Amino acid sequence: MITAVAAGLIGLLALSIPVGVVLFLLGVGVSEFYSAFPLLRGLGQMVWSAMNSATLIAIPLFVLLGEILVRGGVAARTYSALDRWVSWLPGGLVHANIATATMFSATSGSSVATAATVATVAMPQAERLGYDPRLFSGAIAAGGTLGIMIPPSINLIVYGFLTETSIPQLFLAGLVPGLLLAVGFSAVTVLLCLWRPALGGERRSYGGAERLRALVELLPIILLFTAVVGSIYAGIATPTEAAAVGVAAAFLIAGAFGGVDLAMIREALVGTIRITAMIMLVVTGAAFLNFTLAAAGLGNELRAFMTGLGLEPLSTLLVIVAIYIVLGFFIETLSLMVVTIPIMVPIIVELGYDKVWFGILMIVLVEMALITPPVGLNLYVVQGARRSGSLREVMVGCIPYVLVMLVMVAALVAVPDLALVLNGR
Fold first, then answer.
1. Mean pLDDT, range 118-139, rounded to an integer
2. 355 within a domain of the structure (yes/no)
3. In sequence order, what are the residues at sequence separation of 6 or more whose Cβ sits closer than 8 angstroms to the Cβ of residue 225?
4. Domain count within the chain
5. How far is CA 406 from CA 247, 274, 322, in A?
6. How far apart are CA 145 and CA 133, in angstroms?
């Protein structure tokens, strides 16, 4: 049954059928051929139960928060300010790409939105200043992946919802690995540009007074992140309530910069509806498929398979990591999470590993899937923002940053406290 379900998933996705629809079709197939449970009679109630959650309300709110900041002109100001602080490093504006992606990851919660934002602002600079297109675009695609690691993260909300894990604990656990990844991206950029200076383009230095003035542009984003994430950890607000506070604050920030009008509000709301509808279709389709798989006994079958391998817990964990890396080449990231979480997480818990820690490890693996072909979404987002060149250039540019992610996977396995230290574990 495992082989049939996997083949069906890959085959239907290859036909360009929407992911959410694929999950429902697979659920119907599993119900009809592998389970005697009359599942279709309760389909309506199941879909309603999957969507009727106060936790999931945070998703459209965080999406709207990011849409407001992007369409309100805050992105360009943030990029310009960070340019004045980091462009003196070997690599120049490449570091501004990574720093801006890190900053927006702390507000948008979406990797694709982060990559699209930075690419739209940065690409004209690369063409004008003569940067190597591979490294420049690869840094944007990789930096965008931080949107699902650094809190608030929509993917961590989904993980917490599906595994009944504390979302504030997941947010806190993602902070250190996320920042370490950002530092790692900049470090590998420095090494590459010291090796081949032509990759990095022009290095620019600014005076202390100009840098201090640039802080004025960064202060609203920093305050927004503090308000959203700080209110969660202070116990003042739930993640959903904090998201609502963030939306209100984002409107004020965009308004202060003169970026709020009726057209901007309409575009932000329409964008939010589209993204949220896609996410919820995938979540509900996955809930339906996961229930049918459980009814058909796939979870027990997979656990028996893993146990039958006779491996130690660490070896079993490495097998699971390898499975995620391979699946990441072919399956869209959110779909990869919601399809595998109900199967893999119980195995991880039985092995004695922490659910919060595994959530962060999974996110790093999912981040890799965002920049590895053929399905890596960030590759296509960045290529779409370019005026010339091939997708292959973006893929090649991502290779050094994929290596940084592999190092982070190894570090999390070797030192779990990287994800758990802020939670006091």
1. 81
2. yes
3. 106, 107
4. 1
5. 34, 32, 11
6. 19
Phi (first) and psi of residue 91, to 5 degrees: 120, -20
Separation in Å, CA 195 to CA 91, 131, 142, 200: 11, 15, 20, 10
CA distance 322 to 409: 11
- Asked whether 220 and 256 are in contact (CB, 8 A), the reply is yes
Higher pLDDT pick, 133 / 357: 357
Q: Which two tokens stand for residue 77?
A: 């100001």
For residue 330, what are its two tokens?
């072919």
- What residue type is 400 in one-letter code? P
Yes or no: say if 59 and 324 are a contact pair by the CB < 8 Å rule. no
In a domain, 3, yes or no: no
CB 315 within 8 A of CB 413: no
Look up residue 181 and give its amino acid: L
Q: Name the maximum alpha-carbon separation found in the chain.
A: 72
**Contact at 8 Å (CB) between 332 and 377?**
yes
Residues 36-64: what's their mean pLDDT?
71
DSSP-assigned letter for residue 81: H
Range of the domain at 159: 8-423
Token pair belonging to 14: 């290859």
Residue 224 lies in a domain: yes
In a domain, 381, yes or no: yes
Tokens of 219: 């202060």
CB–CB of 403/185 below 8 Å? no
Q: Mind listing the pLDDT tens digit for each residue in 277-290? A: 877 777 777 777 76
The structure's pTM equals: 0.82
CA distances from 268 to 69, 104, 263 (A): 9, 16, 9
The conformational region for residue 109 under phi > 0 = left, psi -120 to 50 = alpha, else beta, is left
Compute the distance between CA of residue 316 and CA of residue 310 in angstroms, rounded to an integer: 9
Half-sphere exposure at residue 320, Cβ-oriented, CA atoms within 13 angstroms: 30
The amino acid occupying position 230 is G
The structure tokens listed for 420 are 């758990």
Is the link from the previous residue into 38 a cis peptide, with omega within 30 of 0? no
User: What confidence category does residue 294 fall into, taking pLDDT thresholds of 50, 70 and 90?
Assistant: low
Nearest to 297 by CA among 57, 82, 62, 33: 33
